[in-house]
Design goal:
The protein has helices spanning 13-18, 27-44, 69-77, 83-87, 118-132, 156-168, 191-196, 210-218, and strands at 59-62, 144-149, 173-179, 201-206, 226-231. The chain has eight helices and five strands, in the order ααβαααβαβαβαβ.
Length: 236
């Protein structure tokens, strides 16, 4: 049900999130991803409602799916969802649940919410696109971007995937780690060092600075996958 969005600006996102009433929004998780999601869909990803099924589209995977309110708001602002759909989220007949469902939510690439699965799925998607030789009309390869949380990064499945991605030089894969200091133990030298040790290019930025996020997400990283650590502090 793609539509032309009425509320299409960054400034409209709080209003859109406010339409989703109820107590179980995982407010802190959603708020921490808001600026990364906006920059990705507004300035980085080559995907629109019209190209959501194009084999050469960029793919975005929200692994941190337990707090989807910001994700739904950005999808509505970009025309993947109707604004009215937000008003009825989590009702029995709504496509918008507490966890995104790729079969129900236009633009969603995976069902998510059970943490630790997004990065392995993104790696598999990027390897599949590379094996198929998928290219855009301008000859460039589509990107696969996955967003995970620093607490979620504790899951062992992430570390198997990041090791394989580094060894295979999966340049088409980008992992954004939203770091809101929720990891139980942290990582020696920081999250970026963990990726660099496996052969990734890693960049760390203020997760609320749109220009810094754009620069980190778009500068070349030839022959290596890219990790962007977005530092975000939330009050809840």
């Amino acid at each position: 049900m793609p539509t032309t969005a009425t509320f299409s600006r960054y400034a409209d996102l709080p209003t859109l999130i406010g339409l989703m009433e109820g107590d179980d929004k995982h407010k802190g998780a959603a708020a921490s991803t808001l600026d990364v999601l906006w920059v990705l869909y507004d300035r980085v990803l080559a995907v629109t409602p019209a190209t959501a099924d194009d084999p050469a589209r960029d793919r975005f995977l929200l692994s941190k799916g337990h707090g989807p309110a910001a994700y739904y708001a950005v999808l509505a602002a970009k025309g993947f969802l109707t604004v009215s759909a937000l008003r009825h989220w989590t009702s029995w007949d709504s496509p918008l649940g507490h966890h995104p469902d790729r079969l129900l939510v236009p633009g969603a690439e995976i069902g998510s919410g059970s943490l630790g699965h997004g990065l392995p799925l993104a790696l598999g998607t990027a390897l599949g696109l590379r094996a198929q030789g998928t290219r855009r009309p301008d000859g460039t390869a589509p990107r696969v971007v996955v967003l995970i949380g620093d607490g979620e990064f504790d899951e062992g499945s992430n570390h198997e995937a990041l090791a394989v991605a580094g060894r295979l030089g999966v340049e088409g894969l980008t992992t954004v780690v939203v770091d809101n200091r929720s990891s139980r133990h942290g990582w020696p030298g920081g999250i970026g060092a963990r990726f660099e040790a496996e052969g990734w290019t890693a960049r760390e930025v203020d997760g609320r600075d749109h220009d810094a996020l754009h620069d980190a997400l778009t500068r070349p990283h030839p022959g290596r996958p890219l990790a962007v650590v977005a530092r975000v502090l939330t009050k809840s």
